[in-house]
From TrEMBL:
<feature type="domain" description="ABC transporter">
    <location>
        <begin position="1"/>
        <end position="236"/>
    </location>
</feature>
<dbReference type="GO" id="GO:0042626">
    <property type="term" value="F:ATPase-coupled transmembrane transporter activity"/>
</dbReference>
<dbReference type="GO" id="GO:0006824">
    <property type="term" value="P:cobalt ion transport"/>
</dbReference>
<comment type="function">
    <text>Probably part of an ABC transporter complex. Responsible for energy coupling to the transport system.</text>
</comment>
<dbReference type="InterPro" id="IPR015856">
    <property type="entry name" value="ABC_transpr_CbiO/EcfA_su"/>
</dbReference>
<dbReference type="InterPro" id="IPR005876">
    <property type="entry name" value="Co_trans_ATP-bd"/>
</dbReference>
<comment type="similarity">
    <text>Belongs to the ABC transporter superfamily.</text>
</comment>
<dbReference type="InterPro" id="IPR050095">
    <property type="entry name" value="ECF_ABC_transporter_ATP-bd"/>
</dbReference>
<dbReference type="InterPro" id="IPR027417">
    <property type="entry name" value="P-loop_NTPase"/>
</dbReference>
<dbReference type="GO" id="GO:0043190">
    <property type="term" value="C:ATP-binding cassette (ABC) transporter complex"/>
</dbReference>
<keyword id="KW-0547">Nucleotide-binding</keyword>
<keyword id="KW-0067">ATP-binding</keyword>
<dbReference type="InterPro" id="IPR003439">
    <property type="entry name" value="ABC_transporter-like_ATP-bd"/>
</dbReference>
<dbReference type="Pfam" id="PF00005">
    <property type="entry name" value="ABC_tran"/>
</dbReference>
<keyword id="KW-1278">Translocase</keyword>
<dbReference type="InterPro" id="IPR003593">
    <property type="entry name" value="AAA+_ATPase"/>
</dbReference>
<dbReference type="GO" id="GO:0005524">
    <property type="term" value="F:ATP binding"/>
</dbReference>
Length: 274
């Protein structure tokens, strides 16, 4: 995915994107990071053609995006968006109907639709919910169904808008594990978030946004050890970076910063990370 000098403004509002230049490489877990109002969701909507730039252009796999029905239909089979609020995405009566909606619109045979639905539900670990009414599900279950409905389209990439928003800690951890699983299955994963701890522990590549612009991009350590950038972006350092700074000052940690608590414990147990 590549955006070249992309501008976008909602009707009657100021510019939400202001000359965004961005290239996302295959094979990396990407986090679009920034405070509320930075333009993260607007950017994601350009990734699947829900919004068309007022200026600039979007490219996918080297081809300039055309905003025709045929092009968008093909594109949205390759890139799937999971909305922040699953209630904004779900509308069918039962889980099976919800997950089957996309494949049915592709004109697939009934057996193929059923196979895709069952595989998506199995991948998400929610086989037992397939005949449940969607409106009776918990918020976390709805999130999983929303992801399954995107998986049933068999996309190459999944884009998550604030994936852990409104989830309790356990449900958040389960969702992050699921995104890791999808990545291991060969799916490209892109998330937008204002959660610096999630971005630091999960992503291979981070894009920092503020006021509709890309301030910086790089690997997690490059981003979160840049004090000037952290101050300019209005973000905070992740907890693990704060802990790493403290341990390094006291000579208790050598080498790279831990990405999560498990890595921290391993480093300390191996005598300061040697």
């Amino acid at each position: 995915m590549e955006l070249i000098d992309v501008y976008y403004a909602y009707p009657g509002s100021v510019w939400a994107l202001k000359g965004v230049n961005l290239r996302l490489e295959k094979g990396k877990k990407v986090a679009i990071l920034g405070p509320n109002g930075a333009g993260k969701s607007t950017l994601l909507f350009h990734f699947i053609g829900l919004l068309k730039p007022k200026k600039g252009a979007v490219y996918y796999e080297g081809s300039k995006v055309e905003y025709t029905k045929a092009f968008l239909k093909t594109w949205r089979q390759k890139v799937g968006l999971v909305f922040q609020d699953p209630d904004a995405q779900m509308f069918a009566g039962s889980v099976f109907q919800e997950v089957s909606f996309g494949p049915m619109n592709l004109g697939l045979q009934e057996d193929e639709v059923r196979n895709r639905v069952l595989k998506a539900l199995e991948t998400m670990g929610i086989d037992e919910l397939k005949y449940r009414p969607a409106h009776f599900l918990s918020y976390g279950q709805k999130k999983k169904v929303a992801i399954a409905s995107v998986l049933a389209m068999n996309p190459d990439a999944l884009v998550f808008d604030e994936p852990t928003a409104y989830l309790d800690p356990r449900s958040s951890a389960e969702l992050v594990e699921m995104m890791e699983k999808l990545y291991r299955l060969g799916k490209q994963i892109v998330i937008s978030t204002h959660d610096v701890d999630l971005a630091f522990s999960f992503a291979d590549w981070i894009v920092v946004m503020k006021d509709g612009k890309v301030l910086a991009q790089g690997n997690p350590l490059e981003i979160f050890t840049d004090d000037e950038l952290i101050g300019e972006s209005g973000l905070e350092k992740p907890f693990m970076v704060k802990i790493g700074d403290l341990l390094k000052k006291r000579g208790l940690l050598k080498g790279s910063f831990p990405r999560d608590f498990k890595q921290l414990a391993s480093m300390l147990e191996s005598d300061g990370g040697d």
